[in-house]
Design brief:
The chain is built from 8 helices and 7 strands, in the order βααααβαβαββββαα. By secondary structure, it is α/β, with parallel strands linked by helices. Strand 2 (about 60), helix 5 and strand 3 (about 85-90) form a beta-alpha-beta unit.
């Protein structure tokens, strides 16, 4: 059985609306480059130095439509290589949303306008909440179904299937 997801505690790194996958995983860098190299250049066109500011366990906080425009699965791999522990956004591109789940990246949708750059943030996807304790901010977020939580806790779809060759997902 997978371990339950723990509460993620990190620093919030703000991005705006409509952040497409080309902005964090630019096609001009994709050819023949390892994920670690791509991670060093993530969001370079949008916010130079953004990738260098991320520390393992940090959280990206974005506006509407984070991850729109493509089904590029490398976008999630790049975020993981950067050390991003979760992404909280007002909304996600549907393909990115599913790629995040399939690759074990915790994500949550909620209003983010009150969360500021550099806030110490807590993300509890299993408990359905986002908090900035130092400023008394708390948002309830839609809880992910048990099957989705199981995939994320396992590190994604493939690790889950390796652990459960019978495809035994928890009931929704």
């Amino acid at each position: 059985m997978n371990a339950p997801l723990s509460i993620i505690r990190g620093t919030a790194h703000r991005l705006g609306d409509d952040i497409n996958t080309d902005l964090h995983c630019s096609a001009k860098y994709n050819i023949g480059k390892p994920i670690e190299w791509l991670a060093q250049h993530a969001f370079e066109q949008l916010a130079p130095g953004f990738a260098a500011a991320i520390r393992p366990g940090d959280v990206i906080v974005a506006g509407k439509d984070f991850g729109i425009n493509s089904s590029r699965e490398q976008a999630v791999h790049v975020l993981r290589a950067m050390g991003v522990a979760a992404v909280v956004a007002r909304s996600f591109g549907r393909q990115f949303y599913r790629n995040a789940i399939n690759n074990g990246l915790p994500i949550a949708e909620c209003e983010v306008s009150a969360i500021e750059q550099g806030d110490a943030i807590e993300v509890d996807v299993a408990g359905g909440r986002i908090e900035v304790p130092s400023r008394g901010l708390r948002a309830e977020v839609p809880r992910l179904p048990p099957a989705v939580l199981a995939l994320v806790a396992a590190g994604g779809l493939l690790p889950y299937l390796r652990e459960h060759p019978d495809w035994g997902l928890p009931a929704a």
